[in-house]
Amino acid sequence: MPSDDQSDEQLLVNWREGDEGDGSRLVRRHFDSVARFFERRVDATALPDLIQTTFMSCVESRENVPEGVRFRAYLLGIARNKLLMHLRKRRTRGDDRELSEEPVAGSTLHPSGFAAAREEELMLIRALPTLELDLQIALELFYWEEMGTQDIAVALDIPRGTVKTRLARARRKLKEAIESQGASLALAESTVHDIRRWANSIRGKV
Q1: Which residues contact 102 (CB under 8 A, 6 or more apart)?
Q2: What is the CATH T-level fold of the domain 99-206, as seen in this structure?
Q3: What is the pLDDT of residue 198?
Q4: Which residues of the chain have pLDDT under 50?
Q5: CATH topology of domain 1-90
Q6: What residue spans define the domains of the chain?
Q7: Residue 165 to residue 57: CA distance in whole angstroms
């Protein structure tokens, strides 16, 4: 009998062995994470296609998930690649900047959707889209999705040590972005220091 308490690893093994039911369970388990990933960065018209193509690629490559790599980390790595492909199609010709180093503003984390939020939350919501894409992703996977540095390394395709450096840089730039909104240094520092609490609060509203 299938069980909802089976690990991702076991569901993946069963899926590879032909159990499509466990494959569907595994996909459903992580659907919301993928949807949130795209909702923060693309408009509603692009959302369904990006989600669908991410899971289609996952189905096609399920045999390629490396040993010891968590399924969600691998899946979000696919999502990031699909996002970069989507953004590449929309970019201006002749622009040779790295897409992962550009700010990307999404449709979900927008101040207009958080009328009752505290001022610190609103500053955080306004500041996040100003960060480079991969800095946004690193922060959101760490604080919103509560993923560890090893899983984030898989999703971003970088060494684990680089994740820690990137998170530190992201927090520093986030503080600078909050200060640029007119916040005092003390308030900017306290907001970044409490980012996990703000993330938990915002998560319930997204």
Answers
A1: 87, 132, 133
A2: Arc Repressor Mutant, subunit A (1.10.10)
A3: 74
A4: 1-2, 94, 96, 107-108, 110-116, 206
A5: Rna Polymerase Sigma Factor; Chain: A (1.10.1740)
A6: 1-90, 99-206
A7: 30
